[in-house]
Hints:
Number of helices of chain A: 12
Strand content of chain B: 25-35%
Strand order of the largest sheet of chain A: 16-15-17-18-24-23-22-20
Largest sheet of chain B: 8 strands, mixed
Radius of gyration of chain A: 37 Å
Distance between the termini of chain A: 46 Å
Helix content of chain A: 10-25%
Radius of gyration of chain B: 23 Å
Number of helices of chain B: 9
Order of helices and strands of chain B: EHEHEEHEEEHHEHEHEEHEH
Strand content of chain A: 25-35%
Number of strands of chain B: 12
Oligomer: heterodimer
Largest interface: A-B, 30 and 42 residues
Shape of chain A: elongated
Distance between the termini of chain B: 35 Å
Helix content of chain B: 25-40%
Amino acid sequence: MTLLQPLGLLALAAVPVLVALSLWRWRRREVTVSSLLLWRDVATAWRHAPHARRRRQLDPLLVLRVAVALALAGALCAPVLVRTAQATRRLIVVLDRSASMATRRPDGLTRWRAARDELLKLLVQLDAADRVEFAAVPPLAEQAIGAERDPRDAASRLLTLEPSDAAAEPADLRRAALDAQARQPDARVLVVTDTPLPDLPAGVGLLATGAPARNLGITTFAARPYPDGRAEVLIAVANANPAPTAAQVVLRADGRELGRRRVDVAGAATARAIFEVRPSAAAVLEARLEGADDLPADDRAWLARRSERLRVAWVGDECYYLRRALAVQDGAEVVELPEPPEVAVPGGFDLALYYRAVPRRLAAGSVVVVAPGAPVGALRPGPLADAAPASVVARRDPLMAAVRLDGLALGRVPRPALPGGFEALAAAGDVPVIGRWRDGAATVVYVGVDPAASAWPLDPSFPIFWANVVASAARQGQEAGGFGCSRPGQAIAVRAGAETVLTDPAGNRHALTADAFSPERVGLYRVRSGPRETPIAVSLLSEGETLGPAAEARPPAAFLAAASGTAAAATWRLGGWLALLGLGLVLVHGRLAARARPA
Amino acid sequence: MRDTQSPRAPAVSAPPPRSLSSPPLLDPDFLRKLDLLEVLFKRNVVGRREGDRPGHQRGGRTEFADHREYTPGDDLRYLDWNLYGRTDRLFVKEFTKQEAVLACVLLDASASMGLGQPRKLDHAKRLAAALAYLAGVGGNEALLGAFQGSSVAWSPRFAGRPDLQGLAAFLEPIQPAGPTDLLTALRALRERVHERSLVVLISDLLEEGGGRRGLRLLGSQRFDLSVLHVLSPQELHPPAIGPVRLRDSEAGTAEDLAVDADALRLYADRLNAFCEGWRAFCQRHDIRFIETSSATPFEECVLGYLRRGGLVR
């Protein structure tokens, strides 16, 4: 039974008051009669009656009054009788599949394995009618994981899953939990991660599986080639241990060792090692930390030399200034895609640029939208208004390197409604004009200024900004003529042909039919198309995964208790009936009281 | 004997104004019905004043009684010359003296008469007024007395067709108070009334024993006695009110008991015995005993109960 108005219970206070009043009246009740002449014998007989008869008898009027008070109090509480039946419980598990989940714990289990064991215990306690859905961060290539399944099937599926070598941000996990909650409001959401998530919304449980790790990892690996054949190679090593640790860093080029260096890293800090080597025409550079630790994925990193030009897909109207700004970028090839503007950008491009157009579906990788006239994902441009003098907000961001907008008049710009995670890079007054956010696998750069309707192209900051855009897009792939690498989980565009074959780091060969693929593991991938083979380096290089704090292990017992649910099979509202009962009792009381009124 | 002689000073200090809802003592319609009735006096009642009722004494002028032989000294005016002419003997005519007798109505105004719903005293006042009116209509005299404790307030004697305003002026201010003392009241009556008259006692009789002694006293002196026993419905049929403390309205004493079904059965037995005792006493002493309830409609009480009881016809 549920009380809709629990405050109505306060009316029960009338019961002791009624009893007290009745007792008081019982003690004090006095009736005047003409004479005791006729009553004296009755009183004498009563005094000599058995003790049981002389006891205070329960006053029926008092019983009625108490019953009326109880009935009315019950009516005020608006009780609802609900016949419940076991409902189908829906559980959505957000799985953190980031590289750090493969970290080995002191007990010998990886964080993933420990989390999986805890999760299996939870699934065993669910009923066959319950439904479980998995959501992975980073997402799995196959979408079937999002489907609901019964607990037994879910347990079988869970046993086949492994963590990837990709990085994941806490914000990604939180967003995935919120999306799951919004998609299925009646479901319970459980986040399984090794990352501390202090700000989870209400109703979202956390199965933490972290533990302190002894780990050293390569977090930066970059090579700057010089025209004379030399190259400067930077390797940063991060230490997750609280104590100082020494590491042996080995640099190889196409399997040939170029150098070896000992790096001393303070506790929970990062140290750098710089090599000046001659890689000659080597296609692949590899950095390796010698010795084993808790997380192998960050012990090796690769760079591959890219020989092809950067390809930029252009969708939308023609813009002379923008076209010129891109044309001067060395190595960039701009391919104009036909109208209509909502056409999806096919794979094989390193950068998709939409000018006055809106992408129907955001392509994986780098996307730049310039002066969109309609919503782009969660960003909604507003009406145009005269812009205040512009300024750079994020000066240290690579996109805004050497860009000076101070005092520049940008003409008319919209005031957009911003998506979650939007990072403002430049603003006109309080209106963001340049910004960036992530939408799925896409990194979207928003430029609210229309170059064709602004004086910005006449300012030196304009070509510098677009040079930064191209360079940033190139860093996601591999810089033409230089070395670069991709990250696990990122989509990599390739020019797939009829017989394109992808060889993964384990040596397995896959036929490539799509124009892009998302590598799960770090290592060196090779794409062969005809006689030509292109190496693609995939490295973790994530301080978050290497150094990220581990959430303390916490079993999900409380969460399971909260997740147990029932559904109402039938509901009866009893307030009206109780009120009627109280009214009837009042009438009966009135009749009895009239009959018992003393002379 | 503490006898209050002032006729206009009944035992009340501050009479409350008559409420609009309280009925008048005697309404005109009922008076017309009363005009058809008369109080029944027994033969032993003797009047001291000449009136309309044939008395026991010889004398008078109009009501012929008998003849007797003339003896020297008889008034020659009463010789029956017609009879002398037929019989040649002298006879004188004798006449019966006509007298007006007294009806005394003794009203119990003790505190116990103030209880009941309707109040017993109100019922008793109207009965008293009706009897006084009937006595006056019959050419007799009426005297009202109201007693509270040991004091009795007397009205003036009402002779002939009574003065209703005078009756109301005496009866209406009476309020219940004090204990019931029947013996003192009846003794006061005996001291105040010297002729053998009709005495009607209107009371609830709820006192210990003295009333019977007083009535025996009056009966031995050949008063024509009637007792109107008035009880309230609540006394006749009390409700079950559970555990209470009963307080005597006159003595102030209290008794604790539980008025339940068993107690009510016992009370009913006690009440029956009480009434039966009075009934037997009155029958033994040739006293009319009429029982009535204050809830009985007044007309039904006068036209039915009093007629059946032989007090009026």
